[in-house]
Amino acid sequence: MPDRKDDVYGDHISHKFNDELMELKTQFLEMGGAVESQVERAVKALIDSDGDLAEQVRLKDKEVDKQEVALDEEATLIIARRQPTARDLRLVISVIKMVADLERVGDEAKKIAKLAIKLSEEGQAPRGYVEVRHIAGHVQSMLHDALDAFTRLDSEQALRIMKEDKRVDEEYQAAARTLLTFMMEDTRNISLCMSVMWVLRALERVGDHACNIAENVIFMVEGEDVRHTSIEEAERVVGG
Amino acid sequence: MSTLNTAVAQEMDKSDEAELPAGESRPAETVIEEGATVGAPYADDPKFKLRDVEVFYGEDRAIKNISLDIARNEVIAFIGPSGCGKSTFLRCLNRMNDSIDICRVKGSLQLDDQDLYDPKRDVVELRARVGMVFQKPNPFPKSIYDNVAYGPRIHGLANRKSDLDDIVESSLRKAGLWEEVKDRLDATATGMSGGQQQRLCIARAIAVSPEVVLMDEPCSALDPIATAKVEELIAELSESYTIVIVTHSMQQAARVSHRTAYFHLGHLVEVNDTNKVFTSPEHELTESYITGRFG
After folding, report:
1. Is A224 in contact with B295 (Cβ distance < 8 A)?
2. Assembly ipTM
3. Domains defined along chain B, listed by start
4. How open is the CA angle B232-B237-B243, to the nearest 5 degrees?
């Protein structure tokens, strides 16, 4: 049973236009799925010390980059051919912006994969992986929920993701303090801890990009830009 | 009604009742509350103040309780599906509907705080103040010069030939036509291209120094280049005149107007800043129309 809201881009007089917008949405979600899997596999490679898996993630990033280019082209053609307005315009513009976020998430996954390769080669005892696992789980669910909010045009869910981002920032600060303690305990830990710190940093950025996607979903649905505003303002937009 | 028409009407009724696929909305079912225009229909110190306007063609009510202000020196675009009343409403603004016997206009329509429909009002003088440009260029079968000079002559705006020459030149300049025609002012106007003829009609309209120019689909018979020239002209004219434009091209409304008014079945559904209308309209019907969901 298709969600009622899923049809809001599919009821134009021009069926071709419906198809083009649907194709844009589908391609975007495919890219979203690919990027989600990249993050998941990169974190798994790190925790399992699996250099091969990390290498696969690194290589797969090129495909994500290609998806970005294809989606941008599709969006550009829709603007050129259809001159979309109102919610159609907001969809196309948001997709262009969210694609950039997804591509950056892909880059963060690649960064984590590279660090996983480095750490697996060094073969040191894991430090801070509890924190990595925790934050990774958190930002992965944010990313998943952001894509889900896009699919269902659910601005309330998008608002929840914006709120989650604050918590990820706090968790990142706490994890950084823990790693700092390890480094102070034994200076031989510094190299390893710095690598883990970069991983945490990358994960925190994934959370930021998920939050950006959520903000764009609110713009698509509500027609108001909530970037660089307070949570209270975003609540007003979504609630009103 | 002929049998064929009856059959067609029945077929249309049937198609109206046909089941829509799950999840599809039927925009026409959206209830429009009479006189409940959303957005920003009012302005401070308006040029036109229009309140509770209704227009009847015989028994048919073509305009249903519309209230709207048109600000000074603004370009306001009227858009909406065919038969929504936008041209009818436009023609109220210089009483062009007077010539239609069965047409009655009710409500309060004021131009600079004075009643447009005051029986004592001189309609010829009104139309000099509120000029009009039509869909099809309609130059007089006279010379280019005489087309532009016609209005100033009958309104006695020029005492000397040199004054008239000045008016003709400045009007043609404002209409962006002077350079193209200055060496052939005596040539007949009907020999010009469509785009040139339309700009000549604009020059003719502005030759009598109007305060308002009404344009009823001024570009629908023009090619894209001529359209771009007329649109450029609208932008320039808006510095001195109030412009009301009816257009079937939503992109044109988006390009040239400051505010956009959306009409639907005789109702004024929404009036808002053009930027708002085309990015996030307030009313569902406006959204459906401008995004090509019905029309």
Report:
1. no
2. 0.80
3. 41-290 (3.40.50.300)
4. 105
